[in-house]
Design goal:
The longest helix has 27 residues. α1 crosses α2. The protein is mostly helical.
């Protein structure tokens, strides 16, 4: 179980790092707007929130990939409804 968790968390962490670098190379966090208003967060706050958002999104993608990769033999058996 721990190995499968690392299959999800570690690649997602690396992908979030790369997304953070790419996005904030192009976007200034102090110029972000939300619903027409200036966001008003510090740069560090925006970087932190964006990193965890990117990490959660990529963890979802990695978890789905891991789930689809599990062999039917390893998957838990559902009870027979009959």
């Amino acid at each position: 179980m721990a190995q499968r968790l690392m299959w999800i968390v570690w690649p997602a962490f690396l992908a979030a790092c790369m997304l953070e670098l790419v996005v904030f190379a192009l976007v200034d966090p102090l110029e972000l707007h939300w619903s027409g208003q200036v966001l008003g967060w510090s740069r560090q706050g925006v970087y932190t929130a964006a990193f965890f958002t990117f990490w959660l999104a990529t963890m979802g993608a990695c978890a789905l990939t891991t789930l689809l990769r599990i062999a039917p033999v390893d998957a838990p058996r559902l009870p027979d409804p009959s």
